[in-house]
Write a structure and sequence with these properties.
Elements lengths: L10 E4 L5 E2 L14 E4 L40 E3 L1 H7 L3 E6 L9 H15 L4 E4 L3 H13 L3 E6 L4 H9 L3 E5 L3 H15 L2 E2 L8 H15 L7 E5 L4 H16 L10 E7 L4 H8 L25 H11 L1 E6 L1 H15 L5 H16 L7 E6 L9
Parallel strand pairs: 5-13, 6-7, 6-9, 7-8, 10-11, 10-13, 11-12
Antiparallel strand pairs: 1-2, 1-3, 4-5
Bound molecules: pyridoxal-5'-phosphate.
Length: about 375
């Protein structure tokens, strides 16, 4: 097994079978096709964080070379605010909302693209391509522009108009397709093979999820270096949820959390019109079947065949929690409730998360005395057409 070196303080290996991979230009595991993970020596508690006010504050945990400046637009360090009236309405003891709508291009996708574009620039790629349900394309357009690398985005024509406009405003080439993100994914793979553009599709390259880890580090630090009982994440491709879980594993390994700390339970929130993970979880499966005819206006959740299915189901088995769904009506109702109770311009994905949490508490799968952190992953403004 290769150890991390000073030159590159991480190595890459498969999240499932641990087969090693080169750290440059890697995609998925050559042996089993599962996502690759960056592996580091534990970062001991007390290691100084970087003196900067963005997500790269957590650089000791990140795939960054010595003296390398990341491609950054001020992503991360988003507010974590507690709302007692909303906690009471949902029926939990304490509830914090992490507002990811306050990122560059208005979603947490900025964190992942900052990391992925940093590594892609390091590899000298000629261009970047991504299939997207929307926000990943806007984020890639922004970070590609910041790095001076051309970007091509394949997105469903039904993606909310403000998101498509942002992609084009940032200079990316936008291909509107008649289909869902799975169809866009096939086109992106073909385009990358033809042109040498690097494909940064969810979990098909190993560094976006590293950027997502910073949400986990921030929650722990914002709570005074501890973790909540429950994390609620509106889940499509799974990168957000997997990143937070990976971050908390790395904090546990380095001794950053109080003795006896463990992973929180995870609530994987999906839309009833596209719920491959919730369906597999209910059936007790370790893999998800593709969802036929995915349908939801919470476009970030319209991912019928996520590459992270096995990892997500493993997280639920090992850490505990539940994967469950909200209907389109419930998403609408709880998005409005979230916005009005907090002043946050909630995305429908955030409303979906709140609805699923409420049901889980009502049904007793999440205990009423829980301390819960719920992610509002985007901004309502992106969906107002
Ligand atoms: C992408 C996205 C999601 C789903 O996140 P995954 O990491 O793919 O599970 C949720 N909400 C919004 C707003 C998104 O853009």
């Amino acid at each position: 097994m290769t150890l991390p070196s000073d030159a590159a303080p991480w190595r890459l290996s498969c999240s499932a079978c641990d087969t090693e991979s080169p750290i440059v230009g890697a995609s998925i595991c050559k042996s089993c096709g599962q996502p690759l993970f960056a592996r580091y020596a534990p970062v001991p508690v007390g290691t100084p964080l970087a003196p900067r006010w963005d997500a790269w504050r957590y650089s000791p945990f990140m795939p960054l070379l010595a003296d390398e400046a990341p491609v950054s637009l001020g992503e991360g360090l988003t507010p974590l605010s507690e709302f007692q009236a909303l906690a009471d309405a949902v029926g939990v003891r304490r509830l914090w909302i992490k507002d990811e709508g306050q990122n560059p291009t208005a979603s947490f996708k900025a964190r992942g693209m900052s990391a992925a574009v940093t590594r892609a620039r390091g590899a000298g790629v000629p261009g970047l391509v991504v299939p997207t349900a929307g926000n990943a394309g806007a984020a890639l357009a922004a970070y590609g522009a910041a790095a001076g690398i051309p970007v091509r985005v394949f997105a469903p024509a039904t993606t909310p108009r403000p998101i498509l406009d942002t992609i084009e405003a940032l200079g990316a080439t936008l291909i509107r397709i008649d289909g869902h993100i799975g169809d866009a994914g096939k086109l992106a793979i073909a385009y990358a093979a033809e042109t040498g553009y690097f494909n940064v599709s969810t979990l098909r390259e190993p560094y976006r999820v590293e950027g997502m880890k910073t949400m986990g580090f921030e929650v722990a630090e914002q709570l005074g270096w501890r973790v909540p009982d429950v994390i609620v994440y509106p889940t499509g491709g799974g990168e957000g949820t997997i990143g937070i879980w990976k971050a908390i594993n790395e904090l546990l390994a380095g001794g950053w959390l109080p003795t006896g700390s463990q992973q929180p339970a995870y609530v994987v929130a999906q839309a009833a019109g596209c719920a491959p993970i919730a369906r597999a979880f209910a059936a007790g499966h370790s893999k998800a079947e593709p969802w036929v005819d995915p349908m939801t206006y919470a476009s970030g959740l319209r991912v019928p065949s996520p590459l992270g299915d096995q990892l997500l189901l493993r997280i639920l088995r090992e850490a505990g929690g539940v994967a469950a769904t909200a209907t389109e009506d419930a998403i609408r109702t709880w998005t409005r409730a979230l916005s009005i109770a907090t002043g946050i311009d909630a995305a429908p994905e955030g409303g979906c998360a709140l609805s699923v949490l409420r049901d889980a508490v009502t049904q007793g799968t999440i205990a009423k005395n829980s301390e819960v952190v719920l992610f509002n992953t985007g901004a309502g403004a992106s969906y107002r057409v």
